[in-house]
Amino acid sequence: MNSPRTTLYRDKQNAKLMGVCAGIADYTGVNAFWVRFGLIALTFMAGGSTIPFYFIAGLLLNKKPAHLYVDHDESKYWQRVRQNPKRTAREIRSRMKDVDRRLAEVETFYVSSNPRLNAEIERLR
Q1: In terms of CB atoms within 10 Å, which of 6, 35, 84, 91 comes out highest?
Q2: Please, which residues bridge with residue 63 across strands?
Q3: Which residues contact 55 (CB under 8 A, 6 or more apart)?
Q4: Does the reported pTM lie above 0.90?
């Protein structure tokens, strides 16, 4: 089952009609103007056959929860997760390795500057 943050919703807060284009824009991170423009261009090129699909999507998609994201940064983070989950996981792993490395440096500095703690650690080995 998908997380609420990785699901496609209708975005009624930024909607012009049913919120489908605004939802796609929120999901992908593409500006809603370009999604709407693309839908209109596709409608003209396809002779209007996309209109039923728009309304079907408007009926099938759930409305986006009002407080889905805490802030804009969280929204951008989840857009990156939806676009490329593996890359996002690699970035998080890399950040955690960096935090681990920095903590090890702090520990080394603290232990080397505290002879009593160093002696206690050596005694425990």
Answers
A1: 35
A2: 10
A3: 18
A4: no
